[in-house]
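Example for reference:
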Amino acid sequence: MTQRKSERPLDERELMQRWATVSDLADLYSMSQTAVRARITSGEWPCHRLGRTIRFSPDDQQAIRDMWKSNQPDLPTRKQNALRRERIKKLLNDAF
């Protein structure tokens, strides 16, 4: 994997204002460049090809972001986890 030119974290808002690379999206979504390329090849993610170069326009990035968010599971919040632990603890105490 290639190193980012700057050491500062990738800012999604800043990225959405320019054409992004495969490396940019791999870093943003915490996946390998190979996984990003596989999604491009399958046609799942829109992109623009300029010869061998692949770039993602701001519109492409928005479409990918919408797909990504719709496919992510709803994770429980801390409060929901705490309530669940309390219920389990109560059930265990009642059982013994």
